[in-house]
Amino acid sequence: MIKPVEHGGALDRAVARYGGKAQDWLDLSTGINPEHFPLPALGEALWNRLPDEGLFQRTLETARLYYGIAETAPIVAAPGTQALIQLVPTLLPASTVAIMGPTYQEYGASFQAAGWNVVECRGPDDIPDEARVAVVVNPNNPDGRVIARKDLVELAQRLGARGGFLVVDEAFADAHHHVSVAAEAASLPMIVLKSFGKFFGLAGLRLGFMISNPLIAERVKQRLGPWAVSGPALAIAGQAFKSRTELTDFRARIDLRRLGLSGVLERSGLKEIGGVALFSLVEHPDAYAVHEELCKRHILVRKFSYAPEWLRIGLALDDAGLRRLEEALETISRLKT
């Protein structure tokens, strides 16, 4: 039996255990931007009709521009990247998959459920010869590790020679465009996954994209079937992708929040060992106790069963949230001295 995967964002469970109302909690447990991108006005027809092909194609055109890929590059829209993560293991007969970890645990669970032998590796040089597929989250969740573009290209070519492919999850690359390998995917045995919800702060929309070569893209498109993504989701994404001025300001606010978080962590004596624009990874010898004390103060961060000395802390929406976190950490520090 496959164990359920632990995730951030389980605010309902925290409320049930520690009390209070959900709106009174400061949820810093996810990698989702706490500010959502401005929503456009949507016509009623979008809610009343199935999404037409024209809407699909217009959204995919703006997505190609946003992700910096060729105007003919194959791209597939899906109801969230999680749907794609569970579909990818079915594209080949079960064999061995190498997952660079520790990382997002749904990859291991999905491949294992499909009958694959799952091997965790630390880097491209550790991938065993029998692996037909490899998975790299880039930048990585939770430590922010980045694998260079040339190394990913070489790895994809190596796997392709075995009849396999490379999966590159770029869920957190929107704020780190320089690491993206999406522009290479159309000509390689490679699948690049893009999350819309994290950077744009619209995880509830359930929208993701896959960029790959024509053969893989067509197979995935056929498996998803017609109308895989809602009309409102397509319209919202299409508008966001082309809002250049708003995107510049939006990114700047993420950077300011991240600087603010790093400042709080430094002043609180928490050792920052990694992360990305949307979260920090810290190390503490008594991380579980810190997590518990924060929960008692209705602040939720992410702990890890496989790394009990780690905590992942997301961005606060505003200065009030940052002050609340800093005051809580100061109180916890005094309790332990």
UniProtKB/TrEMBL annotation:
Protein's UniProt keywords contain Lyase: yes
Catalytic activity: O-phospho-L-threonine + H(+) = (R)-1-aminopropan-2-yl phosphate + CO2
Known cofactor(s): pyridoxal 5'-phosphate
Gene Ontology molecular function: any one: pyridoxal phosphate binding
PROSITE patterns per UniProt: AA_TRANSFER_CLASS_1
Keywords: Cobalamin biosynthesis, Lyase, Pyridoxal phosphate
EC class (word): lyase
Protein name: threonine-phosphate decarboxylase
Top-level division of the source organism's lineage: Bacteria
Ranges where the Aminotransferase class I/classII large domain occurs: 69-329
Function, in words: Decarboxylates L-threonine-O-3-phosphate to yield (R)-1-amino-2-propanol O-2-phosphate, the precursor for the linkage between the nucleotide loop and the corrin ring in cobalamin.
Matches recorded under InterPro entries: Aminotransferase_I/II_large (IPR004839), CobD (IPR005860), NHTrfase_class1_PyrdxlP-BS (IPR004838), PyrdxlP-dep_Trfase (IPR015424), PyrdxlP-dep_Trfase_major (IPR015421), PyrdxlP-dep_Trfase_small (IPR015422)
Keyword Nucleotide-binding annotated: no
Enzyme Commission no: 4.1.1.81
One Pfam family linked to the record: Aminotran_1_2
GO biological process: cobalamin biosynthetic process
Pathway participation: Cofactor biosynthesis; adenosylcobalamin biosynthesis
Organism annotation: Falsochrobactrum shanghaiense
